[in-house]
Write a structure and sequence with these properties.
The chain is of the alpha/beta class and about 575 residues long. It has 3 domains: about 270 residues, Aminopeptidase; about 150 residues, Glucose Oxidase, domain 1; about 140 residues. The protein has 16 helices and 15 strands. It holds the Pfam family Peptidase_M28.
Amino acid sequence: MNELEEALLSEVSLDEPWGLVESFSTFKREHPADVDRGMEEVVARLRAHGVEVKVHQPKLYLSLPGEARVEAGGKTFRAKPPAYSVDARDGLEGELVYIGANQADDIDTIFDKKLDPTRDVRSMIEGKIVMSEGYASPGMIAQFEELGAIGVIGINPGIDIHWGICTSIWGTPDLDDLPRKPNVVSVAVNNPDGQELIEIAKAGGRIKLFAEMEEGWFSSKLPEVFIPGNKEPEKYVLLHGHLDSWDVGVGDNATGDATMLEVARVLWKNRDKLDRSVRIAWWPGHSTGRYAGSTWFADAFAIDLEENCVAQVNCDSPGCRWATEFLNLSRMSEADAFIAKAIEDVAGKPTFGERPHRAGDYSFNNIGISSYFMLSSTMTVAMREEKGYYAVGGCGGNIAWHTENDTLEIADKEILQRDIKLYLLSVFRNANAEILPFDWRATTSEFLETIGTYQQQAGDRFDLSASKQATEELHAALEAFYSGVSSGSIAPAVANAVIQDLARILVPINFTREARFRHDPALTVPPLPTISTAAELDYHKGEGEGFALTQLTRGQNRLVSALRQAKREVERANG
């Protein structure tokens, strides 16, 4: 680190952030009125330090879960309904069937569909209430609804029940999204109760589900801080995270709210040292609207984001107890070296990055913005195993995630201070980098690996050589480009325009299926999704193989076209 960076990090204090964490640990932030209370506190704390704050007031479509239970065999079982379950306060009665599935063993598979596509269970499920292992997630609910279930019970891995959301619709639905709105009653139960219900299902028993839901349009406060840079004030780094939580949600995400509060305070105080601007936002509607707040922002400011946002940085679940390491750290490949250096400088730790999930307020992929961070630091695998913990989607690996146990003891002062410094340094470096710190050669290398894997899986049934050749040609052009940047033959302004433009092309082709400015479902998107059918040809037999090959042909055309467009952008700079 240089002297300026060291001086900046030395200004980090826990006074404001820990005060916010302690305050947030005393009240729930699920209902919009309670979320607004939290937003007002963030705004008041910022303004007390002279930070200018703009408060937006979007209208969001939300689903607010209430009480739930399962009645079976003369017994009542505790349950929690996910957001977007169908209301069943009068009860839904039906035959219970059990369809076994493996519990997710890491975050990659938490939200996936549960069943092998070759497994035909429609006749077992249709018209019945089905139960299976897993969180009541969009993949599970959508798949069982497609197979004709009238209700779904997710069996959580432990003694706790985790809140969640079961819609695959990303943000507030539009007219095209509405057909995917869930139309089944869904609840989650804990594992001991789930095992008892499995026995009832095996005996052909009937049950009754109850779920109280409130759904509709709500006005929500959304604070935004814009810290102007001095050299390129129109360009900015977007730092963001959600303020609404399940219950008091200390590790998910009061610690994140506190981190952004302190980053905003320090950067505002030192705004004369910023080259580019920094934009910081606290989202409502994350838990009850499937990222409705960040999606509204992406929609409302789409053209500005396209023109000026150089990176988006998500802040979720930093500063949690035992979260000493940086494992499963979300980052797009082009940002890998940049964040690894920041983590090494702040924490002296190695980084183990991974492809960002279709989760966590990554509402900007369809615009095409380079991205890093989502979940923050986490505990070691060894500690997780020692404690008998299972995979969760936040809280540094603590299984208090999305439960009433996510209370003050989940936060760790020392780790929070370290993680605040990491976010501060990353955002500051990104804003002040003469050349935007994203290496697209890492991305094309990732593409070549993906294409190679898909070709191996497709065998001689489909030829991906056109994709491989177009990627290799782009990679070669990028080698010349970065050599020119290093030598100074390509001016920084030209280089940065190319690096940003490449994001607009290569991020969507790697992370989305929908057209730009639309939002893909909240389901796993495989790498290079337009050609991912190459990995699924074993599931498409007979007539179906021809349809799959047609899809691959069209998908490869889209990919090759995007790669060639990117190559042209680079070659214009190379001269």
